[in-house]
Amino acid sequence: MSGAGTDSTKAWPEGGPVVILVEPQLGENIGSAVRAMGNFGLSRLRLVNPREGWPNPKAVTFASGADRILETAEVFPDLRAALAGINFVAAATARERGMQKSVLGADAVAAETAGRIAGGEDVALVFGRERTGLYTEEVSLADVILTLPVNPAFASLNLAMAVAVVGYEWFKLASNGALPFQQPDRYPIADKADLLAFFDHVERELDEALFFRSPEKKPVTIRNIRNIFHRVGLTRQDIATLHGMVTALVEGRGTREARTAARLAGGKKPLAGPESSEPTD
């Protein structure tokens, strides 16, 4: 989705977990991660020793309007310092580290995070360097390991993608899966009287068109036709459109029949292919 989905009149969510990026290498990657944070209701960013320094104009460009997150970002010299005030830490890694720690997927981390925040704790989601990820000693500072069900032969996600996937699971839980919009119900559902009137109409015209070729099978065929329309959940507007379609088909057939009759009455033969001559010996 592009910037067309941005609505500056709506409030940004507050109170989610802190996102910590450890030694991010490029401002572009920080900005892209921040854009993903904005997408999924994560507003608090801590940076550990960004390689290109801070602030970084490229981060602003790639944040694509999520500037408020960059403006309140905090910078720390190392991960220990960045964890000040944090009660629970999930460290993202794609590699097994040989530690006796719980390994959770993004959905489970989101659930754990929501429960702890509701209990007054502060939670951090920690992401590592673009090339090497988190060091083992940094993972050791976490309470749980966060990983994703990725292809084990190609498990490395770029920084923004990792933040986006985890952010998505967090915001889906925090928002109860509410979508930003729904198709409005512009027309009321048809009542049974509307539906039965349509059945009468279409069945009458099918009779006229000799659709029901077998009198014995006609009742079953009619039930099947009715069940098709019952399953759809037609609105009153749908019913009106269907009436119009059937009427147009009937009128079109009548027009064609009238034109054929007029041609015959005028002594004109209906159009046909060229006559073939008899072969001679």
TrEMBL record:
<keyword id="KW-0949">S-adenosyl-L-methionine</keyword>
<dbReference type="InterPro" id="IPR001537">
    <property type="entry name" value="SpoU_MeTrfase"/>
</dbReference>
<comment type="subunit">
    <text>Homodimer.</text>
</comment>
<comment type="similarity">
    <text>Belongs to the class IV-like SAM-binding methyltransferase superfamily. RNA methyltransferase TrmH family.</text>
</comment>
<dbReference type="InterPro" id="IPR029028">
    <property type="entry name" value="Alpha/beta_knot_MTases"/>
</dbReference>
<comment type="function">
    <text>Catalyzes the formation of 2'O-methylated cytidine (Cm32) or 2'O-methylated uridine (Um32) at position 32 in tRNA.</text>
</comment>
<dbReference type="InterPro" id="IPR029026">
    <property type="entry name" value="tRNA_m1G_MTases_N"/>
</dbReference>
<keyword id="KW-0489">Methyltransferase</keyword>
<keyword id="KW-0819">tRNA processing</keyword>
<dbReference type="GO" id="GO:0008168">
    <property type="term" value="F:methyltransferase activity"/>
</dbReference>
<dbReference type="GO" id="GO:0032259">
    <property type="term" value="P:methylation"/>
</dbReference>
<keyword id="KW-0963">Cytoplasm</keyword>
<feature type="domain" description="tRNA/rRNA methyltransferase SpoU type">
    <location>
        <begin position="18"/>
        <end position="168"/>
    </location>
</feature>
<dbReference type="InterPro" id="IPR004384">
    <property type="entry name" value="RNA_MeTrfase_TrmJ/LasT"/>
</dbReference>
<dbReference type="Pfam" id="PF00588">
    <property type="entry name" value="SpoU_methylase"/>
</dbReference>
<keyword id="KW-0808">Transferase</keyword>
<protein>
    <recommendedName>
        <fullName>tRNA (cytidine/uridine-2'-O-)-methyltransferase TrmJ</fullName>
        <ecNumber>2.1.1.200</ecNumber>
    </recommendedName>
</protein>
